[in-house]
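A further point concerns the way the authors explain their paired sequence and structure data. An entry of this sort, consisting of the sequence and the corresponding C-alpha cells, reads as follows:
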Amino acid sequence: MSDAIADLYVTTVRVSNGAAGAPVLTLNLAVEAASGNIPNGKALIVQVTAPPFNEVVVQPVTGTIHHTGLGQDQQLVAVSGVYYDTLPPPAIGTITKTFTAALSVDKAWNGTGSFTFGGTTISNCTVTAL
C-alpha cells in the first residue's frame, strides 16, 4: 500500500444547532492526514419543513485542517464548495451559490462550528462524529 493511500481517511460528521426546523449539515470528507488537506468531500444540508422539503447537495467540498497545538489540541477545519439553485417560476435558469463551514473539533471529530449556504448562516452548532 502506498503512503498516499495510507494517510487518507474518511470521516462523517453532523453539524446542527438543535433548533426545531433548522438546517442540518452532514459532511462526508476525505482527509489527507499528513498534510491536513481535504481534497474531496460532500455536504448534504437538509431542512425538515413543510413541503417542499429543502435539500442542498454540495459536491465537491474541499478545504484544510490546521491544529492549534496548544493545550488540548483542536483541529480547525475550513471547507467550502459551490452548488446550483434553480430559480422558482416564473423565472428561468439556475444560479451558483456558495457553501462554507468552519469547525473546531477534537481528534474524534466532535466539537463546535457553523456553516453558511446561499446567504444563510447557521451558528452555535454542535459537531458530532457519525
Notes: Residues 3-129 form one domain. The chain has one domain: 3-129. The beta strands are 8-16, 24-32, 37-47, 54-58, 62-67, 75-86, 94-105, 111-117, 120-129.
